[in-house]
């Protein structure tokens, strides 16, 4: 009798322990480490049935002939991502607001989210509110009271017109009041920090008490992220808001980075790199971003999409965007859908799984 009990217990332990290991592995799983795999069930939606897609991102409609770039799913090494479940998402987020704040890469991700929601429940009613003054657009899925907003903010910190000209102020952020309404915030800024010449929307950079004609842009970006973090620490109610930073979305204009030195852009790329690591260097802004995020006391989740997006040399509009070769933004359907799947997997991570 005693023998049997013991051996039963042993059996139970034998059965349990591999399970426990799986659970532990799942908890440690780095969602951002993995590779792209072909998945015939992709894309998550057909752009022709999603009227939110702007011309800029609508590569198929702009004549892009190849389709294989639509068929890749991100597969983390240690676990699998939950597939986006639109009806469940809408139900869980009843009455809530998700807000994307940043430049056109934020707009890219915001539109992807609208398409993912709409395609999973095409009958869900919505209204749009465009506020030109606040530079913000909100779609409300009225049956659920779910708001999905985009607030256009190139640098997060302030640009102020002064007597000397337009001054980018690394230390002040006065535009954040709108953000307080949101339950989920997804921020991003980087691409405009490298702008120079006619499209640079400032004349000077103010850092502390000093005004510069120019300075190292990566350093300036890092300081702005610290200022943004100070704003979060001073203003956000933790029990209401979850904060994400989109990370650094990479561009592909130099084929040397991915082993095709003759390529001057992403034009003609039809499949991703199927490796785990990108042969080229990591964008310097990423290291600076990670360092700046460490100065923030409130929890901020980095949507660390740089590496997985670096592998997507095929994911940009190239000539099938607004006409100029665009290897910075992403086609929709496409890579930003994966950013949102990751967001979806992280939004509810500290809640009970139902
Ligand atoms: C991204 O790639 C760099 C360089 O290969 C590596 O150091 C870093 O750990 C990677 N990050 C993730 C999240 O995989
Ligand atoms: C999207 O749907 C249209 C119309 O049904 C179809 O012609 C087109 O091939 C689809 N696009 C993709 C990328 O599957
Ligand atoms: C539209 O959005 C703006 C900015 O968020 C807000 O001030 C305004 O009240 C909204 N209008 C409606 C009708 O909801
Ligand atoms: C969140 O915390 C603040 C400050 O501690 C408190 O005043 C507020 O009532 C809390 N809100 C909720 C929804 O719990
Ligand atoms: C591309 O990258 C390589 C390696 O970093 C560099 O030597 C080269 O100058 C770059 N080419 C252009 C056109 O920027």
UniProtKB/TrEMBL annotation:
The keyword NAD does not apply. InterPro entries: TBL (IPR029962), TBL_C (IPR026057), TBL_N (IPR025846). It comes from the Eukaryota. GO terms for molecular function: O-acetyltransferase activity. Residues 28-80 form the Trichome birefringence-like N-terminal domain. It is found in: Membrane. It is a single-pass membrane protein. One of its GO terms (cellular component) is Golgi apparatus. Coiled coil: none annotated. Residues 81-345 form the Trichome birefringence-like C-terminal domain. The keyword Flavoprotein does not apply. Pfam families: PC-Esterase (PF13839), PMR5N (PF14416). Keywords: Membrane, Signal, Signal-anchor, Transmembrane, Transmembrane helix. Residues 1-24 form the signal peptide. PANTHER family: PMR5 DOMAIN, PC-ESTERASE, PROTEIN TRICHOME BIREFRINGENCE-LIKE 9-RELATED. Belongs to the PC-esterase family. TBL subfamily. This is Uncharacterized protein. It comes from Mikania micrantha (bitter vine).
């Amino acid at each position: 009798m005693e023998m049997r009990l013991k051996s039963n217990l042993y059996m139970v332990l034998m059965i349990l322990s591999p399970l426990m290991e799986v659970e532990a592995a799942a908890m440690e799983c780095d969602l951002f480490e993995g590779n792209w795999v072909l998945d015939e069930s992709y894309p998550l939606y057909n752009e022709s049935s999603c009227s939110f897609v702007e011309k800029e991102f609508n590569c198929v409609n702009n004549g892009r002939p190849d389709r294989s770039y639509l068929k890749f799913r991100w597969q983390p090494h240690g676990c699998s991502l939950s597939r986006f479940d639109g009806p469940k998402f809408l139900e869980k987020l009843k009455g809530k607001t998700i807000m994307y704040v940043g430049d056109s890469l934020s707009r890219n991700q915001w539109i992807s989210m609208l398409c993912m929601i709409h395609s999973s429940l095409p009958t869900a009613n919505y209204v749009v509110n465009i506020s030109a003054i606040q530079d913000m657009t909100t779609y409300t899925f009225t049956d659920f009271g779910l708001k999905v907003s985009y607030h256009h903010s190139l640098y997060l910190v302030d640009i102020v017109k002064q007597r000397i000209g337009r001054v980018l102020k690394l230390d002040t952020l006065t535009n954040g009041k709108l953000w307080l309404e949101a339950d989920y915030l997804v921020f991003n800024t980087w691409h405009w920090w490298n702008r120079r010449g006619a499209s640079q929307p400032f004349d000077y950079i103010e850092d502390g008490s000093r005004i510069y004609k120019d300075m190292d842009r990566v350093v300036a970006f890092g300081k702005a992220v610290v200022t943004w973090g100070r704003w979060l620490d001073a203003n956000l109610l933790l029990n209401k808001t979850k904060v994400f930073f989109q990370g650094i979305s990479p561009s592909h204009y130099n084929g040397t980075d991915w082993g095709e030195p003759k390529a001057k852009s992403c034009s003609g790329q039809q499949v991703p790199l199927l490796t785990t690591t990108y042969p080229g260097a990591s964008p310097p802004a990423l290291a600076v971003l990670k360092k700046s995020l460490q100065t923030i006391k409130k929890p901020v989740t980095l949507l660390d999409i740089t590496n997985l997006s670096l592998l997507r040399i095929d994911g940009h509009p190239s000539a099938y965007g607004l006409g100029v070769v665009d290897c910075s933004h992403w086609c929709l359907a496409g890579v930003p859908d994966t950013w949102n799947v990751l967001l979806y997997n992280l939004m509810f991570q500290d809640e009970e799984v139902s």
